[in-house]
Amino acid sequence: MQVDPDFFMNEPHNPTRKSLIIWISLIAFVLNFIWENLHAGLYEEYNYFMKSIYFLGCTIGDVVLKFIIYGLVAVVLKDRCWIRNFNFKTIVTVLLIAGLFAFVAEWVAIELNFWSYNEKMPIVPVLEVGLSPFLAIVVNPILSFIITHKIISTRDTR
Question: What pLDDT is stored for residue 89 in this prediction?
């Protein structure tokens, strides 16, 4: 599959694209910051690096991850504005890409000792990663994209 080099760069001053970026960023930041705070009790003590930047750093990383997922979905669907046509195929594509990222990201973080789980963390069978961080990476993009879709669609109909 070959991707047009200008795939994401056409119409760089498009106001809809700017509002899309702003809305995804804001919604993803709020959802992920709340989630990070709610599931913090499922982890052991973090190493010094992670402890000093945990909530803000993880939240910003999660927002960046949303844009990576958005971009990969755009490539798979061959539609950089796929969020305007949110449907079942889109949701399945987002879930598959986010699920893969969730597994890899959490597995790498555990292997590199960025954090560890305490006894309260439910573990995803077979994958052997924490359920809460796995769900955060799978559920939050879907919620962010659905909310953004609703906002963009509402604004477009005005």
Answer: 92
